[in-house]
Amino acid sequence: MSLLLPHAISTYFAISNGGDIASVEHCFTAGAIVKDEGKTHQGHAAIAAWQRAAQTAFDYSVEPLDMFTEGDRVTVTSKVVGNFPGSPVTLSHAFGLVDGKINTLEIV
């Protein structure tokens, strides 16, 4: 099943699946905040470093399965498969959008 994701979120998942990390500037606001695995990453440089570290540490793919939209908040359930402990896992990505870009992202 293919989901019709907002452009910024689609770009984020492309990055997560081995895409160009420099694209974070195109999908995240300058002061965006990402919370993942108990850590907070703020701004383009920190978010790019977080993505780079994940891509370096593991081989994985992320498949969006379902999407729920409420105003500027979009929650995407995804299946993540890779060479990490506990694979595969189902994760919830809660995106907050501002002017079409990701301003907040919390992954649980």
TrEMBL record:
Residues 11-102 form the SnoaL-like domain. SUPFAM superfamilies: NTF2-like. Gene3D superfamilies: 3.10.450.50. InterPro entries: NTF2-like_dom_sf (IPR032710), SnoaL-like (IPR037401). It comes from the Bacteria. Pfam families: SnoaL_2 (PF12680). This is Nuclear transport factor 2 family protein.
